[in-house]
Design a protein that fits this description.
globular; single chain; 4-stranded mixed beta sheet; about 20% helix; about 130 residues; alpha/beta; 3 helices
Length: about 130
């Protein structure tokens, strides 16, 4: 078996605002950024801890949740202290969709919408 890792690509209307939000809400670190000729973000690479993700500007056949009016996936972010990260994201401008709670399937989680209509499940596995 080989080692693999997922890195979701989040499509954004406003990449610069998204980068700023993820830095404030999740403590994301901007690793790399490539801009378009007009100064908009073409692609940005960020990390939250060891979790890698990318942003891409809308275009061609890349549609943001705002443009589509919904999402096709939820980004699950695992952390040792989901309550703290959930509160931090709410304070940065996210909207709560479901409160943080323990579930019988063994996870503590809460779901939120970021200001760009991407959904995040902030969670940790319970022992």
């Amino acid at each position: 078996m080989f080692k693999a890792q997922f890195a979701p690509m989040l499509i954004q209307r406003d990449g610069a605002s998204a980068i700023a939000f993820y830095q404030e809400a999740f403590g994301a670190v901007l690793l790399r950024r490539w801009d378009n000729d007009d100064g908009s973000v073409h692609v940005a690479e960020l990390s939250v801890g060891e979790a890698l993700f990318h942003l891409r500007q809308e275009g061609l056949q890349n549609f943001s949740p705002q443009q589509c009016g919904g999402v096709t996936c939820i980004v699950e972010l695992f952390t040792a202290d989901p309550d703290d990260l959930f509160t931090r994201a709410l304070n940065a401008g996210a909207t709560q969709l479901s409160a943080m709670e323990n579930y019988d399937y063994g996870y503590r989680q809460g779901i939120l919408d970021d200001p760009f209509a991407h959904q995040w499940s902030i969670e940790k596995a319970l022992k």
